[in-house]
Amino acid sequence: MNDSREPIGVIGAGWVGLVTAACFAELGHDVYVRDIVQEKVDSLARGEVPIYEPGLSELITKHSDRLHFTVDMGDVLPNANLLFCCVDTPPSYSGDADLSRVERVVEEVGGSTDHALVMKSTVPVGTGRSIRRRSDSLGYVSNPEFLKEGTAVDDFMRPDRVVIGEDVNGATPFADRVAALYEPLEAPIVRTDVASAEMIKLASNAFLATKISFINEIANVSEELGANVDEVARGMGLDQRIGPQFLKAGLGYGGSCFPKDVTALKQLAGNSGYHFQLLTAVIEVNELQKRRAIGKLQKHLGTLVGKEIALLGVAFKPNTDDVREATSLVLAGRLQSEGAHVRVYDPVATERARDMLGGAQVKTSASEAVDGADAVVLVTEWPEFRELDWHDVKARMRRPLVVDGRNFLDGELLKQAGFTYEGVGR
Fold it and tell me: Which superfamily, per CATH, for 237-422?
């Protein structure tokens, strides 16, 4: 068998699992995808993708002959030795990662000496060591994912680096085979021990979240002192030691990775007896940042009781329908608790969020959302919002107030059009 084109297994047909499976199929591999939900497996077999991720549906359709979907682990184990574990690891009530899904996968694979679990799920440092203690015959490789929602396919095919964690006693045949899978991507491959690979994932996301919270703090101070955070970030980002990425002020971070991974690393440190004070502040800043838009609305409208507030954008970022830890959910809840009437619109995510929005009205267009509104809050920077006819928006609104939570719109043009405009740190 040619190792560079060997069949692989993917356990878990969620966002990470589907992107991993589709991209390995693009690289020429037969991929056996196992999920426990029969309806999902059936829809994927028909080419129906349950999530919105640019380019993913096209890849799954293109490689339908290489992608095999099943609910039976018995369909995977005889065909693939490398089993990429892509199951969810949500936070538990204690704040620790819930590894029950990972543990079930380990139990199903059993003590096979012919298979290796390749861990893509985000797990606490020490998980690999724990699994190896329970099943020392099962191969284990840590291979964390660094995908961004909205650009995940491109991130997989053009990675900054590939991290492979293996047993500390040197290169293992399974780790060599995993590395061979990524060789066509011509990316740096970081081979290290399992614990360090697990920490690289958590530390990377925690650092990026820290940059976001830092620039949001600078934005808040800039508002008080009359500086423009966009100019500050531009000047900072030209310093090669800092870089421009993740220096965009706004309403804070959300999604499935940053909140979970920052909390997990803080919890992991606490369990070891270390108080990670910096991450405590990062989390606090992010939670407060989501609510600052409320204060800006109150500044111009006074009480929010009975006011009609339109939220443009529900997804935590553009080019995804993911609403996990989305700022829109926090804002909708806070506004309703203040007595406001909330209406929301998002190009792709409103249906997924409908049950999480409380009594907010879900609208089918931006025009419908702003009709009769006392204020518009731009929550997600979908390109179509920049292209709106803002003169028409002003004519539809009861009061021309825009709170731009992402510094996405041209504030000067909106002011010239007669809007009261509030950005972040401007």
Answer: NAD(P)-binding Rossmann-like Domain (3.40.50.720)
